[in-house]
Amino acid sequence: TLSIRLARRASAITLKWVEHGLDLSGGTAKPGFGTSLLDRTVKYQLGGTIERDWASDGLTVRLEIPLKRLADA
């Protein structure tokens, strides 16, 4: 299952992506092109943060992007 939540605060947008029902018993895969592209875009182009939490049954990704950077983009 997939859940995506978007929240706006006075200074930032937060996106939380939660996946459940995955079999991650073999560990996490080596980061690929999509992961690298997302990291560069969020961190360096938009000045935001990205956090990943790998659980045994899924993945949670939390992005936070300053509203000012989105208005300038």
What's the shape? flat
* Parts with pLDDT < 50 across at least 5 consecutive residues: none
Distance between the termini: 32 Å
Q: What is the mean predicted local confidence, pLDDT?
A: 87
**Category from helices, strands and their pairing:** alpha+beta
What's the number of helices? Answer: 2
Specify the biggest β-sheet: 4 strands, antiparallel
Helix-strand pattern: EEHEEH
Strand order of the largest sheet: 1-2-4-3
The count of strands amounts to 4
Please compute the radius of gyration using only Cα atoms.
14 Å
Helix content: 25-40%
Strand content: 35-45%
Would you mind describing this structure in some detail?
The chain is of the alpha+beta class and 73 residues long. It has 2 helices and 4 strands; from the N terminus they run E-E-H-E-E-H. It has helices at 33-45, 67-72, and strands spanning 2-8, 12-20, 49-55, 58-66. A 4-stranded antiparallel sheet has the order 1-2-4-3. A hairpin with a 3-residue loop joins strand 1 and strand 2. The longest helix has 13 residues, at 33-45. The model has no long low-confidence stretch (mean pLDDT 87).
